[in-house]
């Protein structure tokens, strides 16, 4: 192979790699107690709305599409939730991997294999 071909392959591989620090900057929250210490009595906000995760297993909040209600439970090292927005049907249970970085909480859907979303923790 020529130098240009090798350089082209290396550049292509580097461009396809995820940005360092994106997922790695969040520390995995592994226990229900640690999770509750982060969210209990707090509001979680994102561009789509806000929610509160209550210690009694309930979820409540507001979105642009209406009121958000739901339930949650801890399963192993995952946060499992089922929510409904407005008059829409329930979304179905999704167990998510939770990470924390400062005042940001990351939710990775489908047991940590799906898409990630970040919410800001505030009082």
Automatic annotation (TrEMBL):
Domain of life: Bacteria
Keywords in alphabetical order: Signal
Cleaved signal peptide residues: 1-22
Protein name from the UniProt record: Uncharacterized protein
Annotated source species: Phaeobacter inhibens
């Amino acid at each position: 192979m020529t130098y240009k071909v090798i350089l082209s392959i290396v550049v292509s591989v580097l461009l396809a790699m995820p940005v360092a620090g994106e997922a790695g900057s969040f520390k995995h929250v592994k226990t229900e107690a640690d999770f509750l210490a982060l969210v209990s009595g707090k509001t979680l906000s994102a561009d789509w709305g806000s929610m509160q995760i209550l210690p009694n297993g309930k979820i409540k909040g507001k979105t642009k599409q209406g009121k958000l209600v739901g339930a949650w439970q801890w399963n192993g090292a995952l946060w499992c939730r089922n929510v409904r927005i407005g008059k829409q049907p329930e979304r179905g249970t999704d167990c998510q991997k939770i990470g924390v970085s400062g005042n940001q909480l990351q939710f990775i859907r489908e047991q940590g294999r799906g898409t990630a979303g970040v919410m800001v923790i505030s009082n």
